[in-house]
Amino acid sequence: MDAIALIAWHVFKDGARSRTLVSLIGFAFALFGVSLLIGQLSAGQDLKIIKDIGLSVIELSGVLMAVLLGVGLVAKEIEKRSIYPLLARPVRRADFIIGKYIGLVATLAINVAVMTIALYLVLAYIRWVTPGPVRLSWEAPALDPSIITASLLIVAELAVLTAVSLFFSTFSSNVLWSTLFSLGVYVAGSMSAQLRDLAAAVGSRAAGVFSQIVGVVLPAFSAFDVKGQVVHGLSVPVPFVLMTLGYAAVYSAAVLVAATVVFSRRNFE
Amino acid sequence: MTDVVRTERLTKDFLTGFWRPRPKRALDELSLSVPHGEVFGLLGPNGAGKTTTLKLLMDLLRPTSGHAELFGKNVRDPKSRRRVGFAPEQPYFYDHLSANELVQYFAGLSGLKGADRIAKANAALDRTGIGGDERRKPLRQFSKGMMQRVGLAQAIVHEPDLIVLDEPMSGLDPIGRRDVREMILALRDEGRTILFSSHILSDAEQLCSRVGIMACGRLAKIGPLAELTATASLEDVFMEAVR
Amino acid sequence: MARRAWLGVVAAVALMVASAGVLHARDTRTPLMAASNRWLYIRSPRVGRALAMNFSAVVADSYWLRTIQHFGGDRLSHRRDRPFELLYPLLDFTTSLDPQFSAAYRFGAMFLSEPPPGGPGRPDQAIRILEKGLRASPGKWQYAHDIGFVELWRGDAKAAASWFRRAGAMPNAPIWLGPLAATTMMTGGDRNAAKAWLTDMRMTATEEWVRNIAERRLTQLVALDDIDTLQSMVPEFQKKMHRDPTGWADFEAAGLLKGLPTDPAGAPYVYFPASGLVRLHPQSPLAPLPEFPVDPH
Lengths: 269, 243, 297
Prior knowledge:
The complex is a heterotrimer of chains A (269), B (243) and C (297). Chain A is mainly α and 269 residues long. Chain A contains 12 helices and no strands. In chain A, helix 3 (46-80) runs parallel beside helix 7 (146-171) and helix 7 packs parallel to helix 12 (238-264). Chain A is globular, with a radius of gyration of 20 Å. By secondary structure, chain B is an alpha/beta fold. Chain B has helices at residues 50-57, 99-109, 114-127, 144-156, 174-189, 201-207, 225-228, 234-242; strands at 5-16, 22-34, 39-43, 65-70, 73-74, 84-87, 162-166, 193-198, 210-215, 218-224. Chain B has a 6-stranded mixed sheet with strand order 6-7-8-3-9-10, with helices on both faces. A 4-stranded antiparallel sheet of chain B has the order 2-1-4-5, covered by helices on one side. In chain B, strand 9 and strand 10 (218-224) form a beta hairpin. In chain B, helix 2 (99-109) crosses helix 3. Chain B is globular, with a radius of gyration of 18 Å. Chain C contains 12 helices and 2 strands; from the N terminus they run H-H-H-H-H-H-H-H-H-H-H-H-E-E. Chain C has 2 domains: 49-212, Serine Threonine Protein Phosphatase 5, Tetratricopeptide repeat, CATH 1.25.40; 221-297. In chain C, helix 3 runs antiparallel to helix 4. Chain C has a two-stranded antiparallel ribbon. The A-C interface holds A 41-43, 45, 49, 215-217, 220, 223, 226, 228-229, 231-232, 234, 236-237, 239-240, 243-244, 246-247, 250-251, 253-255, 257-258, 260-261, 264-265 and C 1, 4-5, 8-9, 11-20, 22-23, 25-26, 29-30, 32-33, 35-37, 39, 41-43, 47.
């Protein structure tokens, strides 16, 4: 237990010192600039657009962090061989994986939280400069609390993606391939709903079975997307959120168990 | 007292070749034991299987067949490494951490806590000659020799009873090598057991009580240093064994 | 050690299946209200063209795909109201980015004029988009020909004939356009013209599902003709037998019919004695029959 906490803390510290901080500040400023530009272009849609773009940027940068850092957690350590003195400790291989996972998810959660705060600041600014009558036409308030719900689901999504990148880097110590696989899974998982519709449209039974299997194995990243709801002021019911979190937890657990199995049997040549 | 290290017909095959992987035998039925308090040198040319042996002991590799124990516990059990410190060859550590943070991190993973952890980390860094200013610098800025020292520091910080070193002198200048030699002797005097691999015979001559000479995955010769070099120099014995 | 590994694999698989179960439960118990991208970021085609720069054609393609998705999505959705409200803006945007995108004009017009519940039922928009196509390509007889059919669909045979004449006058127009104009003028043939148009669509469409729609419509037209024929038998029966018919058996006995009448899909037509109306069987695969605009003649 202590080992897991130590490893997690170490990952967290490492993440905090990497370039994420710079990118966070950069993101906040970029959002600010974009919001002003958008305000000039569109006709009264700026609030919706900023919320949509803002949440998308949070999600996308989170995805990149989850994959790049996640792969680095194991694959890079194996490639650079810094893993040897660590595993020579009286630490179980499973503890290593779980500790890395918790550390990275914590890092990502903090990053998402900070970026959400930055988004709220931008929205507060928009609200401040928008005259009252225009504000009345907004479908949802500027400082809508359901943005937090969207961010929470983004964190859940990133938790799943982290598990996936960790898994890929347990058996492939090639950093490049692990990164590509993980990004590929992200893209495929985001389209999982459409892939299933496509298979249904094809109509053959083989396609149907295939799409069922793919549907179970591929992480359904599209299931975490509530941007449409939030931006239009539609409610996201609590049971929905809880069950989505449940999905993330169970799926991540599955992937982590698999990663642990692979990692425990691994030879480090 | 049980042997600190014991292997029984330890064998390791690696699969080589992409299209039809064939097993290549890196270690062939290695049986040796290292009793308490000994300084044991595992010698041999490059590719003889020294590093493979050490990795098998550290559970970084899994044997194809055979058995290995540390302090009477199977090496598969993480608890077997509680009283063991390992310094790999040409180590690499995390760029962003300082030497201090790294050694404390590893000390924590070995079970040290709180003030004890900090104190022992400092002691280990003192012992391996890493000064107060340097130990706060990020490891990114360290030279190869300094990294080697950090590697040793993390291996001894938890005051292990067995210290395993893979080519501890590699990359060090003569001063560094002398420091390491002295440290190994001091550790021996503290009653610890040391197992190290090397292809530099002079180091073995100065440090070891027993040596094992490996070639092509096999233990060609093993015995107390004094006995082996009774009639010939270590170099001759070495050359003879690896032929 | 191998046994622990197997246990791990089994646990991983079980958890993965369980996760799919959780997701499925969520989607059936607490589904979200549909709120997909039902609006465009950029409504002005001018802005769009400026932003797309060199990539107008590619962007047009992607918008065309979105159009199809929007149309298909609304058709497949289980919602009661299927507004298709983005169809025209999307088509307008697509064709502004790529004014030569003939598929967008032609099939777009077809989507737009498709009557509810399968489409928005906006022949006026269909004509607008085709006229836009003609402005960009004044000699393209296909657009004029298509406008003609939409007018027919709307029930204005005179306008339809005039468009067919215009189409016939354009370069490289096929020779049957002239006679078609004449026939249209003469008979004001609602369904016949529709049949011709749908047959043409069925043969020229590149997308399979568009061909399938045309096929289905043609079959439905056959059913409508059948219903008219059957309906006309009711007064015949009344004249002959001096009473109201009570079912198909009556028609058969009176010698007006041989056997149970079925539609092209095999479902029997239904006769309602109370109202004297012949209708398609509600469970026929051809149901619902489209609500064609009433022929003003």
